Each structure stands twice: as C-alpha cells, then as structure tokens.
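Researcher: Structure prediction, please.
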Amino acid sequence: MAETGARRVRGGGGSARRAERTAVSFETARFIERNIPNFEILNEEALSIIEWNAETVLEEIGVNFVENPTALLRWREAGADVQGERVRIPRGLARALCATAPGSFTQHARNPDRNVEIGGRGLVLAPVYGPPFVRDAEGGRRYATIADFRNFVKLGYMSKWLHHSGGTVCEPTDVPVNKRHLDMLLAHMTLSDKPFMGSVTEPSRAADSVAMAKVLFGDDFVDRNTVMTSLININSPLTFDGIMMGALEVYAQANQAAIVSPFIVGGAMAPVTVAGTLTQVLAECLAGVAYSQLVRKGAPVIMGAFVTSIDMNSGAPTFGTPEAAHITYGAGQLARRLGLPYRSGGAFCGSKLPDAQAAYESANSLNMALLAGVNFMLHACGWLEGGLVSSYEKFVMDADQLGCLHGLAKGVSVDANGQGMDAIREVGPGGHYLGCEHTQANFKSAFWRTDVLDYKPFETWEEEGARDTEALASARVKKMLADYQAPALDEGTREALADFVARRKSEMPDAFL
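Model: Predicted structure follows.
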C-alpha cells in the first residue's frame, strides 16, 4: 500500500535529528527478491483435485467458529449455512471473498529504509516466535525472561540478513501474562527500527498493539498504512476459536495484516497423506482469509501453512522431512493460485542442542521455503527443540546462514561482468585468477562471507582454542550484545510509549494464567 499520510512527530524535530546523528545504524539487507523459479511439485490435475476437495470440506463438513456469535452472524449474512457453531460455506463463496485481499502490501517500519514488501517475488525473514524457554551455552535451558526477550530483539536488529523484528521471540515468563505484551511491544518499538508483529493472545491485547502503533507512527499514518503483521493460528482441524478470531477482527478493522495459518502436525491434526493435509490446509485458509474480508474488505492478509510430520514411535513432531517439503511446495502453489502472499518455513529442527541434527533439519527447512515461494518466513532463526526453545547460539548461526538464501535468490548473472570473459582472456592457459583485474574488481562481493563459521587452517584454529560452531556463535552473541546501540527515536515518542505502558499496567491486576 502506498504511503499516504504524514507521520506525527513528538518531542520536536531537533531532538530527533540530534538522535539520528549520534545513533549507530546497523546494516540490514533489503528483503529478498527472487530471481530464481519457484519449485512446483503439483501438476494441474493434482491442484484441481485438492482445490475441489477443499471446497467440498467447507460445503459438506464445515468449520467451527467457537465462542464468537459475531462471526456466526457475519457468515450467515454472507450466505453460509450456520447451525450452532458449525459454518458450512457454499462452494465458491470463500474463494470469492478471498479475491478482495491484496496480493501484496507494504509493512512500514519506523525507519522507512527498513520497510518490507510482502507478496509477489519477495521473501521477508523474521525470527523465532513463541518459545517459553531459552538456551545459551553457559546457562543451559531455562524459562525465558523479559531480559532475554530484549536481548533477542537487539540481536535481531543487529543481524544483517533479518528484515523483520518478529513478535514473541521468546515468552517472558517473569512478567504477568496479561501485561507482558506491553513490554514486548515496547522492546520492539524502542530497541529496533525494523518492522514488528502485534499481540494476538487476547483481543484487548491486539487493541493495545494498535494503540501503541498509533503512538509510534501517528493515528493518521496507522489508519492509512499497514505497520503490523500478526500471527492468527487456526486450531486444526477446522476450528477457529474466539480469541484468535477476536484478534483477527481487531487487526482487520484497523487495516493491519494478519497471517491466517493452520498449525498442523500431520497424522495428529491432519491426514497422514500429503494431498489430504493440503486439502485441509487450503480449506482452513480459505475460511480464515474469507472471514478477514467479511470484517473489512481489502484488509491485508497472508495465507499461512505451518505443517510438520510426526514420529510414529514417540508422537513428537519432526522437521526437515521430505513430506514437510512436499506440503510446503504444494501450499505455495495453492497460495499463488489464490493470489495471496504466502507464509511458511523457518529454521525448524527437533534437536535439543544447536548440533548436527539442528543444522541438517534447519538447512532442509530453509532451502525448501526459499524454493517454495514463501513471502514471509517466521522462525527464520533461533528455533530449537521443536519450537520450545529460543537459542542464543542458534539465533546467530541461523541468521548467518540466511545470507546464503539471499545469495541463492539472486540467480545467475550473465551480463558482461558475470560472463568473466575478460578474466579468461587475461589469465589464459596455466595461469591463476587471484591477481587478475576481474578478481580484484569483484572479490569483495563475489562470494557470501560468514560471520560465524571457521575456515582457518587447522593450526590457527587449534591455537585459538579449537572452538566448535556453538562456541564461535556464543562468542558472537556476546560481542553483538556488547556492541549494541539503540536506533534513534524521538524522546517525546519514547516517553509517550512508556507512559502508555505504565497506564495500561496500572489499569489491571497481575494475572499469571
């Protein structure tokens, strides 16, 4: 969406300009724009069958909208068959409603240089979301605190290849449940200047998110632009609960974006087959996206697919598997046929440590998401132990590897420089390219460079302590946090945000459930 409103500046322009001159800005790569083809695993016949079956599910079986009379009324007025909390949607109705959702949109950051385009050929990378535990090399596994949360926001801000600050990068369990969203939003708004996500754990918390965004950006700007993306999970199979739908209603009414995403462990919450799971994913997404358009036609929305397989011996979710890749590829095709931005993928793993298992599974998951045409990738770094843990070391390991995705997405240049014919002519038979003019002109940008992995000779590596990747990542975490400097923010805005948080906290007693 085009920027149409001027932002409200609090505290005077002079103080803001002074802050900008003295603040350190960390480099962030622009969101990825793919110059490579998407991998399409389903042919036309398979896509048509899945689409037909998904509409059959909506028409014959239906979906439940629980504890939400307003949603039932909206569906009845739209022409659905509503019996109790079961909503059966006539064939074609959900798809027609989805047609009003934009195919792409801009999410604005408070630093306009960090704005992202979600949709089309783009890919926006955001960190891990939701774990109640954290892990680091020194302290091990423990419950997350608000200090951990702030640290992860800082690491995200300083990570070159991350485009987005995310949402609940870990769950700060030392803050009351009904108040922690305020502290989390304040951290995203003040410790980073990248785009961020709003709270969805209760409709009033979504309303607080919109209110705080208006303090940060200005009322008019928020009314006319999208400044938040938020995660609305469907209770698979085929159930839309009142809390999540209530949050969706708040965001849609405010023209803020929502990711409508099934949360599926195949074999437990969906059929064990790829086509069966894709049928359920599409049915749930059709109903959820359509409902957002009943709330507000044209509201920005992202079609999501969070799908894992299951270990049939233990019942635990598994990651980086071929079945998960098949579903991720297929769901991308279905999203594109609907003309919707697509959310999926991440640095998924089931490992308890940032070890070889974590690396294999995460690499598989990241590469499949790139090739599947994902537009918004949540959990792109930091995910450990099936999503129960936010890992400091894995956060920087994953964030480093995201640079590979940027490089892969560029594709292959065959312009005059890319062809390298001048270099081949200069060197000729039996020479080497290290000193030739073409190499000297390109060596700084020719290859992706890691900030974590070790490529030194054995003797040097041994002299420096023979550190493995986790140890190297731990050192990088400490250096990044030591080097952190907050991005510029007008002091009047900072004070207004702090005042809002203090006032809202004073209005409610602490609740820990």
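Model: The chain has 19 helices and 20 strands.
Researcher: Thanks, that helps.
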